[in-house]
Amino acid sequence: MTDHASADKGAISALGAARRAPGTGLVPVDRRIYLVAGALFALLMAFSARYGFNRDELYFLDCARHLSLSYVDQPAFTPLVARLSLDLFGVSLTGLRLWPSLAAAGTVVTGGLLAREFGGGRTAQLVGALGVATAPAVLGADHIMGPTAFDLLAWSALALVVARIGRTGDTRLWIPAGAILGIGLANKHSIGFFALALVAGALLSGGRRLLASRWFALGALIAFLCTIPDLWWQAHHGWAAIAMTRALAQENGGLPNALTFLLSQLFMAAPVLIGVWIAGLRFLWRSGRPLWRALAWSYGLLLVFFAATAGAKPYYVAGTYFFLLAGGAVALERRWAEVPGRARGLFASLTACVLITLPVVLPALPANLAGWTAVVNPTQAETIGWPGFVAAVARIWQQLPAAQRAHAVIFTASYGEAGAINELGRSGHLPEAVSGHNTLWWWGPGNPRATTVVVAVPGLTREGAAQAAGMLHRDFASVRIAATVGNSAHETNQEEGGRIYLCQGPVRPWGLLWPSLRHYN
C-alpha cells in the first residue's frame, strides 16, 4: 500500500467519515464548518466599531478617492473594495470592516474544505475550520480592512484547488487556479511567491507531468492578464513597487528580524495546534502525491525566503498554516477515533487559548487599557487617537488668517496622517492634505505656490525629531511648533508626542521642493 493510500484510509475513521459523497470519493461536507465561519464573522463584526480606524484603513480610503490601476505599495483590489464601501456606507468603520470579516469567513470554509480534500471526515473538517478561525494571524489581520485579509483567502483557495488537482489529476482545474492567482495578484504581490514555490515544489516532487499541460499554460496566462493593469501603472511610475520592495527589505531584513520571524511562526496558528500543523507537514510530505508534497515544499521555501528578506513581517507565510492544519487534522483523525475524548480535549484547550489571545488580537479591552498589547500587536494602538489629531490640525488651520489660508497647504509625514485629515476632517472643512509618503507623493503638492505649510510629524525619538526639525529649517525661513499631539486614552502609538509645525517662507517654491519629499516605506 502506498503512503498516500494509507493516509487516505487512516482519515476515514469511525468519527462519521465512512459515508462518502457520490462521485467524489470524499465524505460529505460537514455543515459545522459554515457555523464556525458564521461565528467568526459575527465576532469580527461585533468588534468592528471598537476604537477607531487604523492608519492603513485611512490610507485605503484615501486611495479609494484616487482610483488608479495600481499604487506604490499594493495593486488596485483593496482600494476598489474601499471605494465600494464608501459608495455603500460612507466613511463608516463598521461598513469598511464588513469586507475583511467576509473574507475571514471564506477562509474558514476553505480550511474545512482543505481537510476534506485531503480525505478527512467530519472531525477533520471541523478541526481544519477551527484551526483557521482561531489563528491569531486571522483574528488580527481580518479585523482590519487591508490586503492581508483577502491575501489569506486567496492563498487558502489556491491551495484548495492545487490539492484537488493533486488528488484527482484533473489538470483542467489549473484554469480556476489561474483565476484565483490572478485576483490574488491584483490584491497583493506576495501570492506570486507562493505560486512560484508551488511550481518549484511540484518539480522537486516529480510533478512535472501535471505542469506540462495546456491547462496549466492557460491558467498562467489568466493570472498574467490580471497583472497587466498593475504592470502598466508601474511602468509609467518608475517601477515604484521595486523601489518599495527594496525599502521594505532594508527595514525588515537582517538576522535579528529573521530570528523574530522564525519564533513568531509559533503564533500564526493557536499555540495549542502546533502539534497539529507539524503533523500536517509530515502528512503532506509522506502523501506520495506530488502536488501535496509541493505544498509542504512551499512552506519550507517560503519560510526561508521571507525570514531572510522580510523578517519583521512574520505574517507573510500565515496562509501556509491553513493547509498544514488541514493535513494535520486528517492525520490525527484516526488516532482520535481510537482514543475517544482526545478531540474534545483539543477543543477545550483551543477555547482556553482563544480566550487568552482575544484581548491581544482584538479590541476587547477599554482603549485606555490596551497599551500592553502593543508589544505583541501594535496594530491596535494605531487605531487610537485620530479624532484628536485631526482636531489639533483643524484648530491650527482655522487660526490662520483667511488670506494666509488661501496660500497654505497641509503636509503630513505619513499616509496615515493624511488619510485621517482627508477622511475624518471633511466635516471640519479642512483642505485635502498632501504627503510625500508612498503613493501620495504622486498625487502632487497641492498648491505649488503655497507660502505657508502646516506640517504634521508623528511621534519620533529625540534623534528623529531633531532630524525632522533640521529638514524643516533647511526648507523654510520660519519654523515654529504649533501643537503637540496626544490622545485621550494616553496610549503610546506612532502619533503620540508628534508635533504640528507652522512653516512659512519656503526657500524655494513649494512645487520645486516637492521632488525632494518623496519617501517609500
Using brief descriptors, characterize the structure shown.
6% strand, single chain, disordered N terminus, 23 helices, mainly alpha, five-stranded mixed β-sheet
Structural notes for this entry:
Strands 2-1-3-5-4 form a five-stranded mixed beta sheet, sandwiched between helices. It is built from 23 helices and five strands. It has 521 residues and is mainly α. Strand 1, helix 21 and strand 2 form a beta-alpha-beta unit. Helix 3 crosses helix 4, helix 3 crosses helix 21 and helix 15 (274-285) packs across helix 16.
In short:
This protein is mainly α and 521 residues long. The protein has helices spanning 3-11, 32-46, 55-64, 77-89, 93-117, 122-133, 136-141, 147-168, 174-185, 190-204, 208-211, 214-235, 240-252, 255-264, 274-285, 290-309, 320-338, 342-361, 386-399, 402-405, 415-424, 462-475, 510-513, and strands at residues 408-412, 434-435, 452-457, 476-484, 499-506.
The secondary-structure element order is HHHHHHHHHHHHHHHHHHHHEHEEHEEH
Label the structural class. mainly alpha
Q: Averaged pLDDT, please?
A: 88
Shape: globular
Give, in spatial order, the strands making up the sheet with the most strands. Answer: 2-1-3-5-4
Distance between the termini: 54 Å
Could you give the count of β-strands?
5
**How many helices in DSSP terms?**
23
Portion in beta strands:
5-15%
Report the uncertain regions.
1-18
